[in-house]
Amino acid sequence: MVELAVTVSVVAILAVVAFPGMRVFVQNSRASTQSNSFLTSLNMARSEALKLQARAAVRSTGAGAAGNEFGGGWMVMADANGNGTFEADETISQSSALGSGTLEDVQGTGEIIFRGDGTVGAEHSFRLRVSGCSGTQGRDISVSRVGRASVEKVVC
C-alpha cells in the first residue's frame, strides 16, 4: 500500500511539472503547422505559375476580417486559360480557416499574385499569431520579389 501511495505521489508531481511545458509544446506545434500550411500554398502557387507560364495566386476566401485577412481560409488559383482573370474553375486547392489565431496580410490586399516566371511585383509579408501566443510562437512569412517564400520565428 505504501508503494502505491509513493507511486501515485511521484506521478502527480511529474504531471504538475510537465503540464505547463506541454501547453507550450502544443502552441509551438500549432504555429509551425499553420505557417507550414500557408507556406505550402505559396510554393504551390509559384510552382503552378512556372509550370503554366501564367499568373497564379494565393487569395483570401474573404471570410477573414481586416488584420486577419487569411484567417478565414485561402485558395490557390492559376490563370490556366490565360485570359488574365482568376475564375472559379481555376481553383487548385482551398484551405479552411485557421481555427485559432490570425493570419494577417501586412499589405492588406488579401492576395499575392505570382507571374509566369515565378516572381511577384513587390515583396509581400504576412503575420501569423496563434491564439495565446507567447515567446517566439509568432511567425512572419515573407515572399521576396523573386518569389521565394520564407518563415521566421518572432516574438509575439
How would you characterize the overall build of this protein?
The relative contact order is 0.17. Strand 6 and strand 7 form a beta hairpin. This protein is an alpha+beta fold and 156 residues long. The chain has one helix spanning 2-52, and strands at residues 56-60, 74-78, 91-95, 102-105, 111-114, 124-129, 138-143, 149-154. A four-stranded antiparallel β-sheet has the order 3-2-1-5, covered by helices on one side. The protein is built from one helix and eight strands. The protein starts with a helix and ends with a strand.
Topology:
Blueprint: H1 2-52, E1 56-60, E2 74-78, E3 91-95, E4 102-105, E5 111-114, E6 124-129, E7 138-143, E8 149-154
Antiparallel strand pairs: 1-2, 1-5, 2-3, 4-6, 6-7, 7-8
- What is the strand arrangement across the widest sheet? 3-2-1-5
User: What do the pLDDT scores average to?
Assistant: 86
Q: How much is the radius of gyration in Å?
A: 21 Å
* Cα separation of the termini: 49 Å
Order of helices and strands: HEEEEEEEE
* Low confidence ranges: none
Question: By helix and strand content, what is the structural category?
Answer: alpha+beta
Overall outline: elongated
What's the β-strand tally? 8
> How much β-strand is present in the residues?
25-35%
Work out the helicity level: 25-40%
Tally of separate helices = 1
